[in-house]
Design a protein that fits this description.
The protein is of the alpha/beta class. It is built from 16 helices and 14 strands. It has two domains: 222 residues, Glycogen Phosphorylase B (Rossmann fold), CATH 3.40.50; 152 residues, Rossmann fold (3-Layer(aba) Sandwich), CATH 3.40.50.
């Protein structure tokens, strides 16, 4: 089967790029013929010309349509898998696939189809105004991107896509990562019959010797930025100087952290170090202010037998709970509530047996639901069925 993967890379290598690269490799290994259409946003915001170009291209990309038309003609795919289209491809490429009679499967990495910023986040708190009101005006009103030009551009491109039904009418199947995403799309008017759920997977981390959970530290892994809520955990660390905390990840530009004697900033660490980082921890905290699309840190921690503390919003409850037993691989705290987060951290720190038990549940849940071969097979089956269904309909 011939599969075309379409993606506009972000300014910096992100989780989406990692998923796209893995999908190309997985589908190729499965015997498919894979080609790509990719654009990059790297350095495009560095100049006024680049910003203006991105502003208009996100609504309608002449060069993106030209590239898509050429790729469809040359490669003649059986199915197209769309990831991110913004800004230099844009949704304007989708009708070209319909015109050629080629089915489109879109991987839904975030909430950008129904929220201009893709995060459901405003001023550090979850916000669903654009979903509830059915328009994107509040993105401009509240300057959600902290840039008038970007907020306007993001709102306009979403408004045009919504009003022209370009996604609704030109995408055959939306592949969400979680049931939570699926529910949000349905609430926004997407056809439930056109939505499936296939989660991401992670490449297994290198083996690292597990430590006794009586030892260790409280671990955080991820970008150190506001939406990730790392500052909430820092406040818990300030209140409990006898507990050791370690943060792995890069600090977002412009942010500063006041040093604390019980906090170690490890910076960005490699895969071998990452495995050891999780294995030496007592448990992991994911204090995100935002819903998250698909929290990789949760899977990484679970794969190493470490339980997590996470906010009770978005998909966290579903991802942390075993479907069969209903047992949880960690604890949930009230979103943005530092006091409740503190209580959960102290509870697990003072009860290493509970942390071990929940860590075992997390590992069992990971093995049952997020195993690589199962997910790759689910994608193979989905793409094959869609291509076959389309071929039979001709």
């Amino acid at each position: 089967m011939k599969i075309l993967i379409v993606h506009n890379d972000y300014g910096r290598y992100s989780g989406e790029e990692a998923v796209v690269d893995r999908m190309i490799a997985d589908l190729t290994r499965s015997g498919h013929q894979v080609d790509t259409l990719r654009r990059s946003s790297q350095h495009q915001r560095d100049t006024l010309t680049g910003k203006v170009r991105g502003f208009f291209a996100g609504i309608y990309s002449i060069s993106g349509r030209r590239a898509m038309r050429r790729k469809l003609h040359q490669f003649r795919p059986d199915v197209v898998n769309i990831h991110n289209l913004y800004p230099f491809l844009s949704p304007s490429v989708l009708p070209l696939c319909l015109k050629q009679g080629i089915p489109v499967v879109m991987t839904v990495h975030n909430y950008r189809l129904i929220c201009p910023t893709g995060l459901f986040l405003r001023d550090g708190r979850p916000c669903e105004n654009c979903l509830q009101k059915g328009n994107e005006r509040d993105c401009i009103r509240y300057n959600c991107e902290h840039s008038r030009l970007r907020s306007l551009g993001y709102a306009l491109r979403n408004a045009v896509a919504r009003r022209t039904r370009v996604y609704l009418d030109n995408v055959d199947t939306f592949c969400c990562l979680t049931e939570f995403q699926k529910r949000k799309l349905i609430a926004a008017g997407f056809d439930s019959k056109k939505i499936v759920v296939i989660p991401n997977y992670i490449e297994p981390l290198p083996h690292a010797e597990a430590h006794n959970t009586n030892d260790g530290y409280v671990a955080y892994c991820g970008r150190l930025s506001e939406e990730k809520g790392f500052d909430l955990l820092l406040e818990v660390a300030r209140r409990h100087p006898s507990i050791q905390f370690r943060f792995a990840g890069t600090l977002r530009e412009g942010l500063k952290i006041n040093p604390l004697p019980n906090v170690t900033l490890c910076g960005q660490i490699g895969r071998q170090e990452l495995a050891a980082f999780y294995a030496a921890s007592r448990f992991v905290v994911i204090p995100s202010r935002c819903y998250e699309g698909f929290p990789v840190a949760l899977l990484e921690a679970s794969s190493t037998g470490r339980c997590c503390i996470a906010p009770d919003h978005g998909a966290f409850r579903d991802l942390m709970t075993e479907p069969d037993s209903g047992n949880a691989g960690g604890l949930l705290f009230k979103p943005l509530d530092i006091n409740d987060l503190e209580q959960k951290v102290v509870q697990l720190w003072d009860d290493p047996t509970l942390a071990t038990t929940m860590g075992n549940t997390a590992k069992s849940n990971f093995d049952k639901r997020f195993e690589k071969e199962k997910i790759v097979e689910a994608w193979n089956t989905l793409l094959k069925n869609i291509a076959q269904k389309h071929a039979n309909a001709k």
